[in-house]
């Protein structure tokens, strides 16, 4: 029987994080990013378990004590020693599918967004977690280069992505659009692929991951970033993307319900002034809640209200991500959801 790629709102066992190492690019910001990730863990653990890959046993012991002090139940926390190059679990973590009613985790090749950064340990992280007995379901390796942030799904056969990323020659240069679609349909059980040709964020290293721009909220609803400042360099491309979204149709021929997300004021690196990729589209859906990145901006409250409209019945939880964007990602980029039935039972 074919695989079916699960949407993010499918029931989850846990959210996977990769803890920053003091020897990584996070070194100058280590205390800040750790504080942000602590807030994420505390928030997620109110709803479900958190799996954290940690660089060493000392960090594992420290975090076990730290989260106990913060009131996180031990049963909601799994700490596994598995050193990594960076923290972006969305892109080096596994993709959850279901086959014959059983969860399967697919382990794709991660090359540091087309060879931009060192990624050897990140690329083997899922396999090392599996070898440590972390997962209750099979983990299957794939030879395709694919990052979780590059795709989104409605769970009903539609895949959403961007040409700038998936067709970039730095990913799978031997595959054209038709060949790549064939591979994605076979692996993920999707029946159609919607390609966006416009939209980008300055400061983004991913070649326009869709999770920074447009997200499924349910099979009929898309939330997207909308730039309302004609003087902003993003304005034209994002307006063109909005036009593309208005032209998209669901499998039944109906248009999508579109929810625009506000545009925060430009966030810039305090050291050299380059623009950072602040986006409200990088939210995380978990069991009964949605975690939303905020940036200390007047638009934060508007984003929370818009996503509250998109996710009725779920708690909307803001997470300050000003530290995260300093390394050119945001909240969703730090996480990978693990579907129900994928995490091994532990004490």
In words, what does this structure look like?
The chain is α/β, with parallel strands linked by helices. The protein is globular and about 50 Å long. The mean pLDDT is 96. 47% of the residues are buried. It has nine helices and 19 strands. It has one domain (4-339): L-arginine/glycine Amidinotransferase, Chain A (5-stranded Propeller), CATH 3.75.10.10. The longest helix is centred in the first third of the chain and has 16 residues, at 30-45. It has helices spanning 30-45, 57-69, 89-92, 112-115, 120-131, 163-166, 177-188, 235-247, 300-310; strands at residues 4-5, 12-18, 49-54, 77-81, 95-99, 102-109, 139-145, 151-153, 158-162, 192-196, 214-218, 221-225, 257-261, 267-268, 275-276, 284-286, 289-294, 315-320, 336-339. Helix content is 26%, strand content 26%. The strands form six sheets. Strands 1-5-6-7 form a four-stranded mixed β-sheet, with helices on both faces. Strand 8 (151-153) and strand 9 (158-162) form a beta hairpin.
């Amino acid at each position: 029987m074919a695989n079916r790629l699960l949407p993010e709102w499918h029931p989850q066992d846990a959210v996977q994080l990769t803890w920053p190492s003091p020897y990584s690019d996070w070194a100058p910001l280590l205390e800040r990013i750790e504080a942000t990730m602590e807030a994420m863990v505390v928030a997620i653990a109110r709803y479900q378990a958190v799996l954290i890959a940690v660089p060493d046993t000392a960090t594992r012991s420290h975090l076990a004590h730290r989260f106990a002090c913060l009131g996180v139940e031990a049963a909601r926390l799994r700490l596994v020693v598995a050193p990594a190059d960076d923290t972006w679990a969305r892109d080096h973590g596994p993709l959850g599918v279901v086959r014959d009613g059983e969860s399967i985790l697919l382990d794709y090749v991660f090359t540091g967004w087309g060879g931009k950064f060192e990624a050897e340990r990140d690329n083997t992280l899922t396999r090392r977690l599996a070898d440590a007995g972390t997962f209750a379901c099979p983990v299957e390796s794939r030879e395709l280069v694919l990052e979780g942030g590059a795709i989104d799904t409605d769970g009903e056969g539609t895949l959403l992505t961007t040409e700038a990323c998936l067709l970039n020659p730095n990913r799978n240069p031997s595959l054209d659009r038709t060949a790549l679609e064939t591979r994605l349909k076979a692996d993920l059980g999707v029946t159609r692929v919607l390609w966006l040709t416009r939209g980008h964020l300055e400061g983004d290293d991913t070649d326009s991951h869709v999770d920074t721009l447009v997200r499924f909220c349910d099979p009929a609803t898309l939330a997207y970033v909308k730039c309302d400042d004609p003087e902003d360099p993003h304005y034209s491309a994002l307006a063109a993307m909005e036009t593309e979204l208005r032209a998209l149709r669901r499998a039944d021929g109906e248009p999508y319900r579109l929810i625009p997300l506000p545009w925060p004021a430009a966030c810039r690196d305090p050291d050299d002034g380059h623009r950072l990729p602040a986006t409200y589209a990088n939210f995380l859906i978990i069991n009964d809640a949605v975690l939303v990145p905020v940036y200390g901006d007047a638009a934060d409250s508007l984003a929370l209200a818009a996503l509250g409209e998109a996710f009725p019945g779920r708690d909307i939880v803001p997470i300050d991500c000003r530290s995260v964007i300093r390394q050119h990602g945001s909240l969703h980029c730090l996480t990978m959801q693990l579907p129900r039935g994928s995490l091994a039972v532990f004490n």
